[in-house]
Specification:
By secondary structure, this protein is α/β, with parallel strands linked by helices. It has 2 domains: 81 residues, Winged helix-like DNA-binding domain superfamily/Winged helix DNA-binding domain (Arc Repressor Mutant, subunit A, Orthogonal Bundle), CATH 1.10.10; 218 residues, D-Maltodextrin-Binding Protein, domain 2 (3-Layer(aba) Sandwich). Helices cover 44% and strands 22% of the residues. It starts with a helix and ends in a 7-residue tail after the last helix.
Length: 309
């Protein structure tokens, strides 16, 4: 038995398809199938129920696959520990980011990260919180950048990067566009446009709406902040935009209002497994990100009136 055979079993458990599992492992389907049969013979148990329609792991097969995930995770940790012992800021680092952070923060931080840590090979993956957390748990990702203190992020260690206020985005023709600031109660009679289910920003926006007696729009939900912006510009409603997302727009049909203090906000941080061997790398990376983001947040905070791009 070797680690490669265990990788085949885990891939099959994840994908429930021999061809897809073989493609993921970069081997031919006959190779993967043959090695799994050899593993079954070595262990003396049936791991996979094979049929023309579907692939199902047996009960013991699923138990072994789960234990194999831990073994593979530990093996990767050993390799990473050896590679980064001399220089913790070197080697591959797989980081997941949520869609309401990635397009707005990455342009600010990638330059400083590459300049300060040239030997660090960042691999970036974008996805919703639940998907990213699952991949972090499995060991497919090393680190996440996402909103902290949201459901699903418990049980991991975290480093706070920054806190950003929410802005109220309204069309230039909206009566609120003439105001200097907004308050949550302004949402009470508005059509508040939201992201689709699965985005943590949707839950945060609904919490803000609930505090003011407002309700999110039930007639439309968007896949991205950019879609929400276009809907706001067309006068379909208002929405909440994180501060750093505002600085990347040039749509003159939208006005952004800061909220009266205490303004609603969210905390963005790095999430990682508590037993990770790369904690010193994460701390160094967090420092670089904080320094890169700080001036842009300060620029947003200085604005106390309507912001016109």
């Amino acid at each position: 038995m070797n680690l490669r055979d265990l990788e085949y079993l885990v891939a099959l458990d994840d994908l429930k398809h021999f061809r897809k599992a073989a493609e993921l492992c970069n081997v031919s389907q006959p190779t993967l199938s043959g090695q799994l049969k050899k593993l079954e013979a070595h262990l003396g148990v049936q791991l996979v129920e094979r049929s023309n329609r579907q692939v199902i792991l047996t009960d013991v097969g699923r138990d072994i696959a789960e234990r194999a995930r831990q073994l593979l995770r530990d093996a990767r940790n050993i390799e990473e520990l050896a590679l980064t012992h001399a220089n913790p800021m070197s080697g591959r680092l797989r980081m997941g980011l949520i869609p309401t952070v990635a397009p707005y923060v990455l342009p600010l931080v990638m330059g400083p990260i590459k300049q300060q840590w040239p030997l660090l090979a960042l691999q970036l993956f974008e996805g919703q919180t639940s998907e990213l957390v699952e991949r972090l748990h499995k060991g497919d990702l090393d680190l996440l950048m996402l909103a902290l203190a949201v459901p699903g992020t418990e049980g991991f260690d975290a480093l706070l990067l920054y806190e950003e206020a929410f802005l109220l985005a309204v069309s230039s023709a909206h009566p609120l566009a003439a105001a200097k600031t907004a308050c949550p109660n302004d949402l009470a009679h508005e059509q508040v446009l939201l992201l689709q289910d699965g985005h943590c920003l949707r839950g945060q926006a609904l919490d803000i709406c609930a505090s003011s007696g407002a309700r999110g729009s039930e007639s439309y939900s968007a896949t991205s902040l950019e879609t929400l912006r276009h809907m706001v510009a067309a006068g379909a409603g208002v929405t909440l935009i994180p501060s750093l997302a505002q600085i990347h727009t040039d749509n003159e049909a939208i006005h952004y209002l800061t909220f009266e203090k205490p303004s609603p906000s969210r905390q963005i941080g790095l999430l990682y497994r508590s037993n990770s061997s790369r904690r010193s790398c994460f701390r160094n990376l967090a420092g670089t990100i904080r320094e890169a983001v700080r001036p842009h947040l300060e620029k947003c905070e200085k604005s106390s009136s309507t912001i016109s791009p």
